[in-house]
From TrEMBL:
NCBIfam families, A to Z: HAD-SF-IA-v3
InterPro entries per UniProt: HAD-like_sf, HAD-SF_hydro_IA, HAD_sf, PGP-like_dom2
Top-level lineage group: Bacteria
Protein name (Swiss-Prot/TrEMBL): HAD family phosphatase
Matching Pfam families: Hydrolase (PF00702)
Lineage: Bacteria, Bacillati, Bacillota, Clostridia, Lachnospirales
Organism: Lacrimispora defluvii
Length: 204
């Protein structure tokens, strides 16, 4: 019996545009592309999500690839403020979270994200209904690694077979299934189809 619904964050509960902050601080298109690529399409970004590098060290490495002092300063601004511009909640998903909570489900978040977002969870729609939140940087591993799911189950004292996972990446859903937690790939962003799937839980 499914007792808990587990959500990913990016492109499920929250929309994310990795380079959007660049337009806030930079008018020059070439510089904007150079800076945003160095910041958001980087190994350091993954290391931040895994909690394996500090933001200070990540910034130094990002800046080392940039060609001008101005670009380096823009990288600093983008890294400092990205969460204020790149993320926005999906209202309909907040309504779904509320409905699921009213139906008696436990509501959880399991997401690949940096420590920065631990202080910015108010961006998550329906956050007041969540029973637990786990970000990858807290445990120094990432979905679809088995260790990430194991940390999740252990932290919140949950049984995998009683949880249902919603993620936009199939590899993360498959990783969850390998750990005993069934799930749904939300890649098409079709909320009606997701609701139909959830309505069938525990009715088989």
């Amino acid at each position: 019996m499914i007792k808990n619904i587990v959500f990913d964050m990016g492109k499920v509960l929250v929309d994310y545009e990795g380079h959007k902050v660049g337009a806030v601080f930079m008018e020059d298109e070439a510089e904007r592309k150079e800076v945003c690529t160095s910041v958001f399409d980087s190994q350091e970004w993954l290391l931040l999500d895994m909690g394996l590098i500090s933001e200070e060290d990540a910034l130094k490495r990002m800046q080392s690839r940039l060609s001008t002092d101005h670009a380096k300063e823009m990288a600093k601004l983008c890294l400092k403020h990205w969460h204020e511009y790149n993320m926005y909640p999906v209202k309909e998903m907040g309504e779904l979270v509320r409905e699921l909570k009213e139906q008696g489900y436990g509501i959880y978040l399991c997401s690949n994200a940096s420590l920065r977002l631990l202080t910015y969870t108010n961006i998550i729609p329906g956050i007041e209904y969540f029973d637990g939140v786990l970000f990858s940087a807290e445990v120094k591993c990432m979905k679809p690694q088995k260790e990430m799911y194991d940390h999740f189950f252990e932290r919140f004292h949950l049984k995998p077979e009683e949880c249902f996972f919603i993620d936009d990446l199939l590899m993360n859903v498959e990783g969850a299934r390998e750990c005993g937690m069934d799930g749904y790939c939300f890649a098409d962003r079709n909320i009606d189809a997701l609701k139909e799937c959830l309505s069938k839980l525990n009715k088989q």
